[in-house]
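Entry 14. Two folds queued back to back today. First construct below, sequence then structure tokens.
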Amino acid sequence: MNVNNATHSILKNVILFGRSVIILIIKVKEEEFELNSSNLSQRCFEPLIQIYKVRMSKETNIGVKERFYEELTEGQRALFMFYVYYNHISKSLIEFYWWSAYFMAQPKNWAAIKACFKYFNDEPFLLLLEKIEQELKQHNHPTTLENFTITRDELNDNKELHASFETLYAIFENIYPTTIEKINTLIVMNLHDFIQIEK
């Protein structure tokens, strides 16, 4: 899905709790969107990440990430954080390890990743995150980016850590297809929270 052709986004002002809130609404033409697609969640994510990348390339101030995230609906936030995490960790065992360590060292992002699985009511993935966190902390991995010096080589240099993450990665590979099915189902049931289809 090309955000410039198949979709376009609008910013909508909504009054919430007495203050104006800007919500990012993704619009897509009905004929260009297959609701029962197995990659429905990915197709709803693509316009979000494209908009995010454009903003990051145009704006240089520190708050651009936070402002973008605040404009998303609760469902969009959950979807965005899922794919930001999933797209990095799914590439290999080493990437699964390093990106988990990197995200855990960013407390706000780690909390948002956990929140996304709560939103999708995905207890198995939440449990996996807790195990990942426990394992990383047990091996003294940092919980902030200050002095973050973790490298991908550390996984191969530590046999105990490597064995633990092999087990965790196997769990991930076993559960993520069900996670994506859950996300697709929830999107169909709450479409307005993710995307707006135009006839």
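Second construct, same run, same settings:
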Amino acid sequence: MGLYIPETEVTLMTNRHSIGVLIPGYHPDLPVLKEYLTDIARIIEPDAIRLELDDPVPETTSYLKDISVDVQVNTSQHRRGKGCAIMEGFDALDTDILAFADADGSTPAEDLKRIISQVEIGDADVSIGSRRHPDSSIVKHQTVLRRRLGDVFAFIAKRMLPTRCRDYQCGAKAVRATAWGDIGHHCYEPGFAWDLEFVSVAGSLGYDITEVPITWKDHSDSKVNLVSTPIELATAIVDVKRRTDAIANSPRYRNTQKTYESTLVETEGMNDE
């Protein structure tokens, strides 16, 4: 007598998507990074994990040789910026789904898996972690100043950019590789503003975007500069609006149905495996 396997399980088994996880890093906390990589390998079981390190010190590369996780490591001798590191890493990965998370582990591997699952099951082309999702849990808040700056930035971005999201900047996102082929062609921001541009371009090209609730813990050693970063983001909003307006007005995308607002994932509808 043969073993009965439900049709839904057969579909998952035969349509399994390969997953690549990218971690961009600039002088990361090595013990934290090691623990995060171990959690990602154990919980998500991706087909590839890739580190994109900017300006690493010798101790970093030596330390990474001793971890048990199979990781592709690419280094740059200068600081490219978060956006450049992600774009180069995504272009190098050869998997069906591409995901990235910040090296400080603020988004737990369990939540990164849920973000990826929205793309894997076909509910979205782009899936982003959202600290402002009503079901999210903030274990440790940012400083009051950083929270206020973030609130002002989100308020302005939602009113200027083509796609409304609650949280553009959370450092955990996933995308179908085929969608990245289109989105990446229009991304130029080299630094922290890349997240903003990525979401806005995806919406302008008509890709579905979901925001997934996360458990998030701020790290006080963040590389975000409270003077230069707000200036960078303010300038980027203007530049991204100009570029996404160009997409909207291009004859090539005249018939594209834009995504004007992200979809909030309900907790009970999430894949908790």
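Quick look at the second one. The longest helix spans residues 228-249. The CA atoms of residues 9 and 15 lie 10 Å apart.
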